Amino acid sequence: xxxxxxxxxxxxxxxxxxxxxxxxxxxxxxxxxxxxxxxxxxxxxxxxxxxxxxxxxxxxxxxxxxxxxx
Length: 70
Prior knowledge:
This protein is mainly β and about 70 residues long. The protein is built from no helices and 4 strands.
């Protein structure tokens, strides 16, 4: 029987969606059909990624188009 104990630190990324002023927006409502711009700030990651994947439901959004492909 091995009764050694192990401790692990698992880093968890912190993700925030911010508005045009850079302030976190937990809830925000927009008029249907409005164009919005979202900025995602990701911190506390061990290895930063070169991109972020945005999805609407199961569909991946395209950040190269004016409406993201929606």
